[in-house]
Amino acid sequence: MSKSTRSLIDEIDARPAVDNEKTFQALWAILGQLFEQVNTRFELSSDQSTQDLQPYSAIDGSGAGGYLSTFAGPEVDWLVYSWVGNPKMSFTNMHLTIGLGSQYDAPNLGLAFGTTPDLFMYMDFVPRVDLASNPEYMEKYYSELNEEHLRLQENPDLTSFISRDMYMRVTQTPASLCFTAPDTMANLELMRDSAQRMLQQWLANVEKSAILPKEQRPAQAARDEALRKEIALRDPMNEMVERMYGPELSARLVSALWGGDRTLPRPE
Question: What is the pLDDT of residues 76-108, one digit of tens each?
């Protein structure tokens, strides 16, 4: 397993005109299958704040576009299902991120796929507590993910991606799956299979989750939103998004990722 600390923006700038349309369609289809499973499990309502972003496009006619939908429900505080980029010009980024309602203590879910122009994947269970001081929580929710992490670390086709931004690294757990890989059918299948296992593990975590007392839930909700906001604001790829869409739309897209303009109430 090799490692890379080169920024994704540098990778894109080095090869800015790779046509990844077929790969984008394959990745978006994988994410769509995962979203449909989530949509079947949870009661979800679409948030009106992003209705006009389904889809959206760059104003310069470059072909850059995107789709951003957000949801909430009785068990889900905030869900983002989205893509951004230009499939014919190297860069795309897709998200399925799910913040559970504050009644649960199970981890939240973060999934991201992309073309940079190589394949990129990030998958993690975002903890609701400090793992180092809560080893029982870690063992309850992360044992299977840790096995997947170790298995993929042994794959010679994958390059372990290490973000240059320290905050991004702080928010990842030691079991996170964060890799780049050559754009091959075998690696696409690996991503599909790993993402499916990841989702099934996460859904199982929800089923076995502890239910927090009502007096603890406001603090849980505040922590979740603060972390979600900080990750969205600090994401190094915001620079690429601003290049493509300008500062006004870029700021709106970032705000939508953490729920800054949400209209739906938060679950109690």
Answer: 999 999 999 999 999 999 999 999 999 999 999
Residues contacting residue 147 through CB under 8 Å, at least 6 positions apart: none
Is 268 contained in some domain?
Answer: no
**Total number of residues shown for the chain:** 268
Residues 6+ apart with CB under 8 A from 38: 44, 79, 96, 98, 199
Alpha helices in 4-113 (DSSP H): 8-14, 21-41
> β-strand 2-4 against 159-161: which pairing, if any?
parallel
Task: Report the C-alpha dihedral over residues 150, 154, 159, 162, rounded to 10 degrees.
Answer: 30
User: CA 55: distance to chain centroid?
Assistant: 19
The domain in which residue 120 lies consists of: 2-258
Contacts of 97 (CB under 8 A, 6+ apart): 78, 79, 80, 108, 109, 110, 111, 112, 228, 257
Model pLDDT for residues 150-208, shown as the tens digit of each residue: 999 999 999 999 999 999 999 999 999 999 999 999 999 999 999 999 999 999 999 99
Bond preceding residue 55 cis, omega within 30 of 0: yes
Decide if 267 is inside a domain: no
Tally of domains in the chain: 1
| Structural domain contains residue 160 | yes
Structure tokens at 222: 């505040």
Q: What is the CATH number of the domain that holds 172?
A: 3.40.1500.20
Side chain identity at residue 211, one-letter code: I
120 within some domain: yes
